[in-house]
Design a protein that fits this description.
Strands 1-3-2-4-6-5 form a six-stranded antiparallel beta sheet, sandwiched between helices. The chain is α+β, with helices and mostly antiparallel strands. 41% of the residues lie in helices and 13% in strands. It contains seven helices and six strands; from the N terminus they run αααββαββααβαβ. Helix 1 packs antiparallel against helix 2.
Length: 248
């Protein structure tokens, strides 16, 4: 029969030595981020692929922060290379976009010219219309005087066929920066001034109506659209033939 220890005696301890606490943490083994560090270095050199240099830059920063990649100068060099390559890619963006825009415009110009030669009804962008083109755009022809209608494309066709509208003048808005919608709308008043020379009577005395297309901020930036196209048509019906010198 066991007896409890007398007061003041230490309690018995069974087992091995008690665990130790405190002391510095164990050092991380060096060089365990070798694959990560060299991957970042390789990505920082790939200038021809968008965003890869900045990915290499981030990897290099992680490798430096973890302090597990040797030699550290390679990670530091990767940071420098990643920054330089990213800056170079950013600088290359405007010329690339200009090249793409020019290529798209050339393709659209070619298809529009083919549509004019074919004489068949063809969908063409409004920004490629020019003086002498006849086309259908029922939404614009039937719009109220103060109503704005967005028309990305219209149906181009010979003026000898019934059509809604005819372009009688094209105005170019100068400048490199978009002048603002108010300035564009003020410029459209030139369409009224040129109406009499084309139709043969002043605009207030004519049965025909003036319509126009003008550039927006988006079309100005993406397609270098600086043109205001002045169009004429009858507000209630389609017409056949050109309206030049109709004098009514």
């Amino acid at each position: 029969m066991s007896q409890p220890p007398p007061p003041g005696d230490p309690l018995p301890y069974y087992g091995g030595p008690p665990p130790a606490y405190g002391g510095p943490p164990a050092a991380l083994p060096p060089g365990t981020d070798k694959g990560l560090g060299w991957t970042g270095f390789a990505l920082a050199l790939v200038v021809c692929v968008p965003c890869l240099p900045i990915v290499g830059l981030v990897i290099a920063i992680v490798a430096l922060a973890r302090r597990r990649f040797q030699p550290r100068w390679v990670a530091a060099l990767t940071v420098v290379l990643g920054l330089a390559a990213t800056a170079l890619q950013v600088a290359m963006v405007p010329p690339i976009l200009d090249g793409i825009r020019d290529s798209v415009n050339d393709s659209i110009d070619a298809s529009t010219e083919e549509a004019r030669r074919s004489g068949e009804p063809s969908e063409v962008p409004t920004l490629k219309l020019r003086a002498g083109d006849c086309f259908n755009d029922p939404n614009l022809r039937r719009a109220d005087a103060d109503e704005q209608v967005e028309s990305g494309t219209v149906t181009l066709l010979p003026c000898t066929r019934k059509h809604d509208l005819e372009i009688y003048a094209t105005l170019r808005v100068p400048g490199g920066k978009f002048p603002g919608q108010a300035a564009i709308e003020r410029r459209t008043t030139e369409c009224i001034k040129r109406f009499r020379k084309f139709v043969g009577v002043p605009y207030p005395d004519s049965q025909f109506e003036v319509y126009y297309y003008y550039p927006t901020k988006l079309s100005w930036r993406l397609f270098d659209d600086h043109a205001i196209q002045c169009a004429v048509g009858h507000p209630e019906r389609r017409v056949t033939g050109s309206l030049r010198d109709r004098k009514r």
